[in-house]
């Protein structure tokens, strides 16, 4: 009997078994990697003298200096770790690099050891199984993180699941020149009326800009009657019910915007320049520390003041994540742990450095450390983080954000 037909019929099954075996090997490799470090001492020992390629947005000089000069020097001094800060314009660049390496079969010697990440980029990496997870409990400074806080445990509505480490928090706030504007609007409804009463004195960046997109979401929340109606997975039926109301509000505002809404700033930096030039009366940013930095640099007037809205402003946590194929996981874990330390969080909170809100729960620190945080000077232009936090609104699931941004382009920008 000829043997070739038998081989032909059995071959697909053999291939399937081989593929399954290879998949099991990769799975076992991932599991063993999770168990490779019995305790923190093992991690530190493996990390000593290592290198961390940290891919992060590089658009702010003060943040770049903090990472390179402070974090980098401390890691070198304490652990012999060399930190390479690799500035990128968009986090998606790093995500795509890891994805490309996975597709090419590079599962152990990736180019990226750490990424500053959140939101849609985290979703992409989690769904693509591109993340190294399950190491948080090894980090000594993880005890200073309040994982019961849902805005930390969930990244834009997606469970962190041990795949990220928080290192910074931000919340949207408005700024105005108190010498020019006496009664700035205190809520989205007040803002809508204020814009119509002060033609040409307000605008916002296009949805392609992160801060512009956040502003549009505030209007969307208002149109929905509050964010609670939009939480969870994307719901097309809910979107279709709310979106026309939001587009109507924004279109009604358009003739009263700067340059009658015929053009929108392309980036938040353009809006900052308009505010500095007194072409618009209101400015906003997802990082309120920038208000003080711009005052100290002579860009904004000293009479600049900032505030949150009575109906709340959106806040989020941003994180660092380790790709699954990082060849320097131990050094990346040590870096993530240091970013959660009192020293790193306190340095970052200094107005002269960054002025960023801490990602750790300050109440979990020693009394002396809490006192140091409480004694930090804050530029008068910067609203107190605790005042903003009282009316913090959650971010939406990335699928909601995608739909809102696309809807704005189609129904408002055009």
How would you sum up this structure, described in words?
InterPro entries: SBP, YnjB. This is ABC transporter substrate-binding protein. It comes from Sneathiella chungangensis. Residues 1-33 have low confidence and may be disordered. The protein has two domains: 39-168 and 317-379, 3-Layer(aba) Sandwich (D-Maltodextrin-Binding Protein, domain 2), CATH 3.40.190; 171-315 and 391-413, Periplasmic binding protein-like II (D-Maltodextrin-Binding Protein, domain 2). It has helices at 4-34, 40-47, 61-79, 91-103, 120-127, 150-153, 188-197, 210-224, 236-253, 268-276, 289-296, 329-339, 342-349, 367-374, 385-389, 398-413; strands at residues 51-57, 82-88, 114-117, 154-155, 158-159, 165-171, 173-177, 282-285, 304-307, 313-321, 392-393. It starts with a helix and ends with a helix. Helices cover 46% and strands 13% of the residues.
Question: What would a concise description of this structure say?
Answer:
InterPro entries: SBP, YnjB. The chain has 16 helices and eleven strands.
Notable characteristics:
D-Maltodextrin-Binding Protein, domain 2; 2 domains; 16 helices; disordered N terminus
CATH architecture call of the largest domain: 3-Layer(aba) Sandwich
The ordered H/E elements are HHEHEHEHHEEEEHHHHEHEEHHHHEH
Shape type: globular
Number of helices: 16
Supply the CATH class of the largest domain: Alpha Beta
Helix share of residues? 40-55%
Q: How far apart are the first and last residues' alpha carbons, in Å?
A: 72 Å
**What is the H level of CATH, i.e. the homologous superfamily of the largest domain?**
Periplasmic binding protein-like II
Q: What's the story with the biggest beta sheet?
A: 6 strands, mixed
Classification by helices and strands: alpha/beta
Kindly state the number of beta strands: 11
| Rounded mean pLDDT score | 90
Strand content: 5-15%
Specify the oligomeric state: single chain
């Amino acid at each position: 009997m000829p043997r070739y037909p038998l081989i032909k019929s059995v071959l697909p099954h053999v291939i399937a078994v081989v593929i399954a075996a290879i998949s099991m090997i990769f799975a076992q490799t991932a599991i063993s990697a999770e168990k490779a470090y019995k305790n923190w001492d093992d991690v530190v020992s493996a990390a000593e003298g290592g290198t961390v390629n940290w891919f992060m947005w590089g658009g702010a000089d003060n943040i770049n200096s903090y990472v390179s000069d402070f974090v980098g020097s401390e890691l070198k001094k304490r652990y012999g770790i060399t930190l390479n800060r690799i500035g990128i314009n968009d986090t998606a660049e790093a995500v795509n690099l890891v994805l490309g390496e996975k597709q090419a079969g590079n599962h152990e010697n990736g180019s990226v050891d750490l990424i500053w990440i959140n939101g849609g980029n985290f979703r992409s990496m989690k769904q693509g199984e591109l993340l190294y997870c399950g190491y948080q409990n090894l980090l000594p400074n993880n005890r200073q993180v309040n994982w019961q806080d849902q805005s930390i445990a969930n990244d834009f509505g997606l469970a962190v699941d041990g795949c990220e480490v928080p290192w910074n928090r931000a919340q949207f706030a408005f700024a105005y020149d108190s010498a020019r504007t006496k009664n700035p609007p205190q809520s989205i409804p007040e803002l809508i009326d204020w814009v119509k009463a002060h033609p040409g004195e307000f605008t916002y960046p296009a949805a392609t800009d992160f801060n512009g997109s956040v502003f549009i979401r505030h209007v969307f929340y208002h149109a929905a009657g509050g964010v609670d109606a939009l939480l969870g997975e994307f719901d097309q039926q809910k979107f279709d019910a709310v979106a026309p109301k939001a587009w109507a509000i924004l279109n009604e505002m358009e003739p009263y915007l700067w340059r009658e809404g015929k053009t929108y700033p392309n980036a938040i930096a353009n809006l900052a320049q308009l505010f500095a030039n007194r072409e618009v009366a209101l400015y906003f940013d997802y990082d309120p520390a920038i208000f003080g930095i711009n005052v100290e640099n002579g860009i904004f007037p000293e009479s600049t003041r900032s505030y949150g809205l009575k109906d709340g402003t959106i806040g989020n946590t941003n994180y660092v994540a380790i790709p699954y194929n990082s060849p320097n996981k131990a050094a990346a874990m040590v870096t993530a742990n240091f970013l959660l330390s009192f020293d790193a969080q306190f340095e970052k909170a200094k107005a002269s450095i960054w002025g960023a809100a801490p990602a750790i729960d300050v109440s979990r620190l020693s009394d002396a450390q809490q006192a140091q945080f409480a004694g930090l000077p804050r530029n008068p232009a910067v609203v107190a983080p605790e005042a903003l936090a009282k009316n913090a609104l959650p971010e939406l699931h990335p699928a909601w954000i995608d739909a809102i941004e696309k809807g704005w382009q189609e129904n408002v920008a055009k």
